[in-house]
């Protein structure tokens, strides 16, 4: 048991779940928040963290991380990615089920859970498979997965056998009140596309993925959500039209939420020009109009969650001709810096950004994390909002250095991360 007592002093505490944005001290005992603002009776700090001039907030919850262990440890291990998460102020990683083997049995999740606990850098929670081996045919044993600790189910971006299987899967998930994480994409419209279908793809001679590949699938999944009354979360949206449909469905009372990967709020299909493999992502970067609608949706709350969609790769995975490279970005260490750039650019205010990284994902999946009430786990991120630094991929802690943001200048850097009251990251400066 963690028996340390920590006093975080003088920071600006932003805790959107509790409506707090003020200078308040935090007192931690035995890994839990013992008090906020007022020192608890009998409290004696064994350690004091001076947070003067810094922002203190709940630890970030990253909804939808592709951990590579088990099965692809050459791309990243649970420990390497959890340590990278701590460096980025992330205290809870939500693992997608597409490990090897797939998280479709309690045994696979138990293996991941034990390894994550042994590492101790961050909390790892699991999304279980919607279908066996993610093959889209037979439903996974969702009740057993939930009992083992899985908090949601998903088929990731793997195709479902047909719409009837999807309907039955959503109905089955509803019996356990398990959220279904939907990566809505029509595989036939996507075909062998590798970037957004448009003028840039035509000029480069690359097969495109039309916006309709997402919007058609979102329309289908919204209809099934309404029909089954399931809890649906739309993951990594990329098109403005999909946002409009989700906004309308919410007004109609559908039980749903949505997220966007942080890189979709910055880069466009034009960034692929020159065949830049670090910009090969799925879903692809879209147009400026799409990006602007996504930004507006994050600001309005139609998108409640910002995630990293972290997908680390070894260097060779990005060295083939563009269509053959592996899609994905190593995003744990740029999730908060890019989110703070939205504040710097006047897109969002700071409390809203922190809400989308903490309370938003907690609400979407019914988690107790993402807030700093007394008695809650002391999962805390402290960052200096004024420190200016430049991203050097060689300095990243993740095993994956695949990022299109190399050389970008950021304002705001994590100085301390506390997970269950233990300091898991402390900057040298």
Automatic annotation (TrEMBL):
<dbReference type="GO" id="GO:0004038">
    <property type="term" value="F:allantoinase activity"/>
</dbReference>
<dbReference type="GO" id="GO:0046872">
    <property type="term" value="F:metal ion binding"/>
</dbReference>
<dbReference type="InterPro" id="IPR032466">
    <property type="entry name" value="Metal_Hydrolase"/>
</dbReference>
<dbReference type="InterPro" id="IPR024403">
    <property type="entry name" value="DHOase_cat"/>
</dbReference>
<keyword id="KW-0665">Pyrimidine biosynthesis</keyword>
<protein>
    <submittedName>
        <fullName>Dihydroorotase</fullName>
        <ecNumber>3.5.2.3</ecNumber>
    </submittedName>
</protein>
<dbReference type="GO" id="GO:0005737">
    <property type="term" value="C:cytoplasm"/>
</dbReference>
<dbReference type="InterPro" id="IPR013108">
    <property type="entry name" value="Amidohydro_3"/>
</dbReference>
<dbReference type="InterPro" id="IPR011059">
    <property type="entry name" value="Metal-dep_hydrolase_composite"/>
</dbReference>
<keyword id="KW-0378">Hydrolase</keyword>
<dbReference type="InterPro" id="IPR050138">
    <property type="entry name" value="DHOase/Allantoinase_Hydrolase"/>
</dbReference>
<dbReference type="InterPro" id="IPR004722">
    <property type="entry name" value="DHOase"/>
</dbReference>
<feature type="domain" description="Amidohydrolase 3">
    <location>
        <begin position="347"/>
        <end position="423"/>
    </location>
</feature>
<dbReference type="GO" id="GO:0006221">
    <property type="term" value="P:pyrimidine nucleotide biosynthetic process"/>
</dbReference>
<dbReference type="Pfam" id="PF12890">
    <property type="entry name" value="DHOase"/>
</dbReference>
<dbReference type="GO" id="GO:0006145">
    <property type="term" value="P:purine nucleobase catabolic process"/>
</dbReference>
<dbReference type="GO" id="GO:0004151">
    <property type="term" value="F:dihydroorotase activity"/>
</dbReference>
<feature type="domain" description="Dihydroorotase catalytic">
    <location>
        <begin position="53"/>
        <end position="235"/>
    </location>
</feature>
<dbReference type="Pfam" id="PF07969">
    <property type="entry name" value="Amidohydro_3"/>
</dbReference>
<keyword id="KW-0862">Zinc</keyword>
């Amino acid at each position: 048991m963690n028996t340390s007592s920590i006093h975080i002093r003088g920071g600006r505490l932003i805790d959107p779940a509790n409506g707090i944005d003020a200078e308040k001290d935090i007192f931690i005992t035995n890994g839990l928040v013992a008090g906020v603002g007022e020192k608890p009776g009998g409290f004696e700090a064994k350690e004091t963290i001076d947070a003067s001039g810094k922002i203190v907030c709940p630890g970030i919850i990253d909804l939808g991380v592709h951990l590579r262990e088990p099965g692809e440890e050459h791309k990243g291990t649970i420990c390497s990615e959890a340590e990278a998460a701590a460096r980025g102020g992330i205290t809870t990683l939500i693992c997608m089920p597409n490990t090897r083997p797939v998280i479709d049995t309690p045994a696979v999740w138990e293996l991941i859970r034990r390894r994550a606990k042994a590492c101790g850098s961050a909390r790892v929670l699991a999304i279980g498979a919607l279908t066996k081996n993610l093959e889209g045919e037979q439903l996974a044993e969702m009740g057993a997965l939930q009992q083992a600790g899985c908090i949601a189910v998903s088929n990731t971006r793997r195709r479902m056998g047909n719409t009837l299987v999807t309907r039955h899967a959503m109905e089955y998930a509803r019996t356990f009140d398990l959220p279904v994480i939907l990566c809505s994409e029509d595989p036939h419209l996507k075909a062998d596309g590798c970037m957004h279908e448009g003028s840039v793809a035509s000029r480069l001679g690359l097969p495109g993925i039309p916006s309709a590949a997402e919007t058609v699938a979102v329309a289908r999944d919204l209809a099934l959500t309404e029909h089954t009354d399931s809890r649906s979360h739309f993951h990594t949206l990329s098109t403005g039209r999909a946002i409009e449909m989700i906004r309308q469905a919410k007004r109609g009372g559908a039980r749903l939420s949505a997220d966007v990967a942080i890189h979709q709020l910055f880069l466009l299909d034009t960034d692929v020009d020159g065949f830049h493999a670090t910009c090969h992502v799925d879903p692809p970067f879209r147009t400026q109009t799409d990006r602007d609608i996504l930004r507006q949706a994050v600001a309005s709350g139609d998108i409640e969650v910002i995630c990293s969609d972290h997908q680390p790769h070894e260097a060779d995975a990005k060295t083939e001709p563009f269509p053959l490279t592996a899609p994905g970005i190593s995003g744990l260490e740029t999730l908060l810096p890019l989110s703070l750039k939205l504040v710097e650019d006047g897109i969002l205010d700071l409390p809203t950004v922190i809400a989308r990284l903490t309370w938003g994902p907690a609400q979407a999946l019914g988690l107790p994390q993402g807030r700093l009430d007394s008695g809650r786990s002391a999962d805390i991120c402290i960052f200096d909002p004024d420190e200016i630094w430049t991203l050097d991929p060689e300095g990243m802690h993740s095993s994956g250095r695949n990022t299109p943001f190399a050389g970008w200048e950021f304002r705001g850097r994590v100085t301390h991360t506390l997970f269950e009251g233990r300091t898991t990251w402390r900057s040298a400066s």
